[in-house]
Amino acid sequence: MNPWLILFLVIVVIVLALWIPRYRLRRAVAAPFPEEWVHILDRNIGVYPNLPKPLRLQLRVLIKQFLHQKHFSGAGGLEVTDEMRVTIAAQACMLQLNRHGGLYPRLKYIILYPSAFVVTRSEVDGSGVVSHGRKGMLGESWQNGKVILAWDNVMHGARNFVDGSNVVLHEFAHQLDSETGSTDGAPLLAGKSSYRSWASALSGEFEELQKDARFGRRSLMDHYGATNPAEFFAVTTETFFEKPRRMAKHHKELFDVLKSYYRIDPRDWQESS
Ligand SMILES: [Zn+2]
Fold first, then answer.
1. From the CA of 154, how far away is ligand 1's center (Å)?
2. 31 alpha carbon – ligand 1 mean position (Å)
């Protein structure tokens, strides 16, 4: 065959391979937002009716993109429905409002169990002792493109958006964190000065929470955040979205850093938390 013809065909294949996914995504995002999905948001996402209209519209676009790009599968006998997909996508996309990067580019799969799922883990304690155990989990975020969730807890967290506990916000904060290549409590930030203010705001608060946990003192953030910096970022994300007023009042520097990172102020729609 003529080598020029072969080159031409190769170029056509490459162009099509690049163009078709973008065309499909544009088409999915441009499609009308189904009325049934609006009912799901109104019914299941406690905070959705309070969002300013521009954010609601933005959220709908992100949900369409998310549902086009991510694959859901049920485990433990669960059959995944649109209600589950939309409820999870809406909460995951809350973390992406006003941000213009990829939408969890590494994430491919969301695996959904009906309720807490059991995993086998090896853990090393402070004295170096390795233990192997089975424990119940409500959610897990993997760096290799997977998030695992327990549906009953997802639903509880979605409807109660003011108690500071939300498994979807938590696991997707881990996904943002892992975009740097390591899950260590420092997600992708713009510039060295951002990393400096991030470290300054988070490290002091992390140490305070560790003390609160050690001495059994009450704290705004869940003591689970004292486990390590990655869990601290995930837990502070839950608190930022669900208890923004109290966080701004009692942890102002931390609140300001998260507000600048997430580019939103949840106090605009959280009336009393
Ligand atoms: Zn976690």
1. 14
2. 34
